[in-house]
Amino acid sequence: MRIATMLMVTGALALAQAAPALAQTAAAAPARAAAPSPAAAKPACANPDALGIGRIVEIDTTGGPGFGFEHFKQLDFLRDKEVVLTFDDGPWPANTPAVLKALADQCTTGIFFPIGKHATYHPEILKRVAAAGHTIGAHTWSHANLNRKKMTEQAAKDEIEKGFSAIKWALGRAPAPFFRFPALQHPPAMVTYLGTRNIAIFSCDIDSFDFKARRSQQVIDTVMKKLDRLGKGIILMHDFQKHTAEALPELLRRLKAGGYKVVKMRAKAPVETLPQYDEELLKNVKLPTVSARPLSSVVRTVKE
After folding, report:
1. What was the pLDDT predicted at 143?
2. Structure pTM?
């Protein structure tokens, strides 16, 4: 399949698709003032020197395309000086919110690959990731290495599917059909399986090795050294790591100073989770619950 069928710059397409819907809305309620579109209502970037978003591409995940030259070399869609920011292993208290702030301060975006279990621990944090407009995929249920010898094909499928179902539960909607294997271990049978499920696979071009770093400057130096050599690429980081959260503000400034532009990747359609895994998650996992009690029975003023 040619790259042109996989990737589309979406600015003009989005306007074309939105026009009929806006026309129908105006016709249905002619007496009311037209409501601003979500794009128009969104405040402009407060940082005039922000890194921002250079380009938006839409991914047709039919057949399970692979991205990242570490493992997949067919779809070389990035232009020179373009990067994709990706973050694995969240959501996690303190670190994920710090990553979100750094991205927001630079009015830019990333792809998050959460662990299913972590999503059930901290659904409110994952909702913040979605609310900020970032793309969300999946990274298995428990971060198990799907390539280890004792891992059966069924167990590996369970890890993949349960992870997507957990993220769907945490978000209240299905995430993108984007998947990254833990430790970038790609068993051929699971690569084939993801193709049958129309789920795109993400490797990387630049591994920050932030999980090995002892200080934030190491993360910055590793990424920039590799990036200046390659000239572009999908960058692998972890919003689970404290040093990544600490490094990100300066790293984004370095990207801006180096003339790099961030590409936002989004899916043409959300993943279709499998009902049996959605049901199993609700039955067998201890999920956080929201109290249904009225406020007066929970909070009572005893002194003013």
Report:
1. 97
2. 0.81
Could you tell me if residue 296 is inside a domain? no
CATH of the domain at 150: 3.20.20.370
**pLDDT computed for residue 61 by the predictor:** 98
Query: What is the spatial distance between Cα 267 and Cα 46, in angstroms, rounded to a whole number?
Result: 27
What pLDDT sits at residue 146? 97
The pLDDT value given to residue 218: 97
DSSP code, position 46? S
Residue 138 to residues 45, 120, 178: CA-CA distances in angstroms? 29, 13, 6
Domain that holds residue 96: 55-283
CA distance 173 to 171: 5
Structure tokens at 46: 């407060």
Contact 145, 126 (CB under 8 A): no
Gap between the Cα atoms of 164 and 162, Å rounded: 5
The pLDDT of residue 304: 67
Low-confidence ranges of the chain (pLDDT < 50): 1-41, 291-292
* CA gap 64, 8 in Å, rounded: 17
* Number of separate domains in the chain: 1
Q: What element of type H or E holds 26? A: helix 11-28
- Residue 42 DSSP symbol: S
Residue 125 lies in a domain: yes
Amino acid at 262: V
In a domain, 153, yes or no: yes
Q: Is residue 112 within 8 Å of residue 158, measured between CB atoms?
A: no
| Rounded Cα distance, 283 and 265, in Å | 34
Residue 45, helix vs strand vs coil: coil
Residue 8 maps to a domain: no
